[in-house]
Known about the structure:
Layout: H1 3-12, H2 20-34, E1 42-44, H3 46-59, H4 75-86, E2 87-89, E3 99-103, H5 110-123, E4 131-136, H6 139-154, H7 157-162, E5 164-165, E6 169-172, E7 177-183, E8 196-200, H8 208-216, E9 225-230, H9 239-251, E10 260-264, H10 292-304, H11 309-317, H12 330-333, E11 347-354, E12 362-370, E13 373-385, H13 386-394, H14 402-407, E14 411-414, H15 421-435, E15 437-444, H16 446-449, H17 451-458, E16 463-465, H18 470-485, E17 489-490, H19 495-502, E18 504-509, E19 513-518, H20 526-540, H21 542-549
Parallel strand pairs: 3-9, 3-10, 4-7, 4-8, 8-9, 11-15, 13-14, 13-17, 15-16
Antiparallel strand pairs: 1-2, 5-6, 6-7, 11-12, 12-13, 18-19
Helix pairs in contact: 1-2, 1-4, 3-4, 5-6, 10-11, 18-20
Organism: Ruminococcus intestinalis
Domain Terminase large subunit-like endonuclease: 255-535
InterPro entries: P-loop_NTPase (IPR027417), TerL_ATPase (IPR046461), TerL_nuclease (IPR046462), Terminase_largesu-like (IPR005021)
Amino acid sequence: MNWVKEYYRRIECGDIITSRRVKVVYSRLIAEMEAPPVGFPYYFDEETGERPILFIETFCKQSQGTIGAPLELELFQKAFIQLLFGWLEKETGYRRFRETMFLCGRKNGKSTLLSGIALYMLIADYEGAAEIYSVATKKDQAKKVLTEAVNMIKQSPELRAVVKKRRNDVYFPATSSIFEALASDSNTLDGLNSHAVIIDELHAIRDRNLYEVMKQSTSSRRQPLVVMITTAGTIRECIFDNMYELACDLADGKKKDDTFLPILYEIDSRDEWTNPQMWIKANPGLGAIKQYKTLAAFVERAKNNPADLPGVLCKDFNYRENDNSVWLSYDQIKNDAVFDMSEVYNTYAIGGCDLSATTDLTAATLLIRKPADDTVYVLQHYFLPQARIEHLEEKNTNEAPYRLWAERGLLTICSGNRVNFSEVTGWFCQMRDEHKIDAFKVGYDRALAGYWVEEMKSNGFTMEPVAQGPFTWSQPMREMGAAFADKIVNYNKNPVLVWCLSNTAVKKSGVNNIQPVKITDKRRIDGAVSLLNAWVIYVKYYDDFMYNVG
């Protein structure tokens, strides 16, 4: 049975409503089945793709609800499994897909699906000494899929007869294969030889290194598989955002990787969360696995209580959103517009800086305007001491991907345990001397500036102190927020600024005063404050500045 075609047929005839990207991916893969391009290196084998489906429905038993009953997969699950396992390389006969991202709302049978796939890979995938790992940031999360698999085994006489539960893993003696749960703080991540890596709730993983290490551990296997099944999350610029954007680009045809399968169940626009007919786009198991009444209750509660909305948007509809206390929504922050340095060559700017108390993140900003152009262009650079990064790594605190940002040229790692403010001066000078970006004025926090102000002045910059408080910040903060909402701020998709803005809450005081604060003590908002300091100067000297711009 070709479950892929059956699923797509029901989508096409309107029996099943699904997301735009799911429809596009299935359409493209079915076209490759029926009329493969000349020289196409893959082919679809219906029977091979159905093997794991038959394995799961024959041997895996329900561990919840009707305990011990056969596990019957839904059509969307069968189609996904058959796609994942049925596409093969013509040259080797090995699997085409080595990695997949399966995005769907909570309570749509994710753990059950993962457990069934993991047991198939352990027992029936023709791989000797297979190593199957369920991974997460914390061991408790990593053990969820393993625990579900163990419970399935307990309910299945056939699996109990061939598989052994040991202290830390599940063991299949016939091929000396294991299934184990690992966390990012495990001491055993190096030296693995993974056949399958199961990542449940990718959005909860902040450390990209965990993903990289586990993916590299599959490199010596013949047909390894990395399976990521997740909902969306409220933490921005983590590994989830990176992988989700890659999956979107692959689904949309903007990028090409024939070994990555993106299946993204999500609402196609934010307003669909209030339309019951569209809920199934992010919840393919709605009615069969996930209860409609439960979801309806969540939605109704979110309508009446805005604090519940981000959780419902992320967890039930896979629409990326920030924490409920943030100043700007992710929709307002997100802007895909980019620019080249040549486009801001020989321009006027207003500088802003948020200097750390020497040991933390420092942000430098240039707010640029061009003649006859309503866009506000933003350049930023960040600075962090080497000692701070080493401390975070030693404590296994995955605060942010600082080293990755440094590799991209967005952040300078200062030697020692202090930020070298002369390097901040050097960045402003570089922008002026190499790119002819002339800073009209530079706004700064006078409480932390110290000698840096005099150093900047000696290099020809006009410095302007900015009092850090609601009296100074309120109106510029409103105007800055409105500019982001109107999509006129082009920050060149700087992920550090996105992260800082996503960490920024708003504190209200008096009749109409606001100021930025961290949503939690562990988050950083330095980039947002640096830009806001520049925006204060922008508002204060708008006429004079724009006269220079022309």
